[in-house]
Specification:
It contains eleven helices and four strands; from the N terminus they run H-H-H-H-E-H-E-E-E-H-H-H-H-H-H. By secondary structure, the protein is of the alpha/beta class. It has two domains: 161 residues, Glucose-regulated metallo-peptidase M90, N-terminal domain (Cyclin A, domain 1); 92 residues, Collagenase (Catalytic Domain) (3-Layer(aba) Sandwich), CATH 3.40.390.10. A four-stranded mixed beta sheet has the order 1-2-4-3. Helix 7 packs across helix 9. The longest helix is centred in the last third of the chain and has 24 residues.
Length: 288
């Protein structure tokens, strides 16, 4: 009865534009923060249109994969607290585009997407990270430069919307702030931002560690020498940034990544359960 009422309210249009965002809050209140997918009303038609027009990366997915993606998107949109910051008015479009890229990473992983994630904050552009200091009068030189995105271990992702839009528009440039920051959330599932997400067993962990060290050190050498490749040199900052940068390349420049770094590509293929370098991009790999 409750679901029928929600669907009737949605169809009636009685909340007009305001209901686009109010619906998420209402569903969280009535269904609970992490309701089962079967409890959700049908996916809004507007979401499908936005996927087709604003998220080119989903073009390689099968129809079944797109349906699974939409379900995970519902869980993320209606299971987290979203907030527009810095004067930004949050819209349904922003939520859908962000959730689509975030859930692409966990498309083939079971369970809720990002179960530890609680807050998604979106600024209109670059933002100054907030840092607590015991010395409020600290020199301005100590302040960090404005950021495009940030991911916290305690379930917070912060994004610059203009960068998110630019990353979504060009699915082949290897730069996507949403993929990057949500990769950090996956990295944190092991307990640390260290380039190693939670893996199924000790054998998988040993294999991943060997691969990570080899490829990270290679990128550090390339960055020091000024040699360009498929991975952005920002990945040489540390192993956490390496994993996030590698994730961007895996989904946006998979063929080049496979050619340049086959061991890294294979490890990511196994972890994400996707094979974007193949024509269909739907092949599943064995567990890492």
């Amino acid at each position: 009865m409750l679901i029928r009422l929600l669907v009737m309210l949605t169809a009636s249009g009685m909340f007009a534009g305001a209901f686009a965002l109010g619906r998420a809050a209402l569903l969280r209140l009535l269904l609970g923060p992490r309701a089962r997918p079967s409890a959700y009303p049908p996916v809004p038609a507007s979401w499908r249109l936005l996927l087709a027009s604003r998220v080119p990366l989903v073009a390689r997915l099968t129809s079944a994969q797109r349906e699974r993606l939409l379900v995970k998107m519902q869980q993320l949109v209606w299971g987290c607290r979203w907030e527009g910051c810095g004067g930004l008015r949050l819209t349904e479009e922003m939520q859908v585009i962000t959730a689509a890229h975030a859930c692409l990473l966990v498309l083939e992983q079971p369970g809720d997407p990002y179960p530890s994630l609680r807050n998604i904050l979106i600024y209109p552009g670059t933002f100054q990270p907030r840092r607590f200091s015991w010395t409020p009068s600290a020199d301005a030189d100590d302040q960090q430069a404005p950021l495009l995105g940030e991911s916290w271990k305690r379930g917070v992702v912060i994004l610059a919307w203009d960068s998110a839009v630019a990353g979504a528009k060009d699915p082949g440039d290897g730069e996507n702030v949403v993929l990057h920051e949500f990769a950090h959330q996956l990295d944190a599932t092991s307990g640390q931002f260290d380039g190693t997400p939670r893996l199924p067993d000790a054998t998988a962990l040993a294999s991943w560690t060997t691969m990570l060290e080899m490829n990270f050190e290679q990128l550090v050498r390339e960055a020091e020498a000024g040699a360009s490749g498929v991975l952005d040199h920002y990945g040489a900052t540390d192993r956490a940034e390496f994993f996030a940068v590698a994730t961007e390349a895996f989904f946006e420049r998979p063929t080049e990544l496979l050619q340049e770094r086959p061991a890294l590509y294979d490890a990511l293929r196994r972890y994400y359960g996707q094979d974007p370098a193949t024509p269909s991009g739907t092949c599943r790999g064995p567990p890492p």
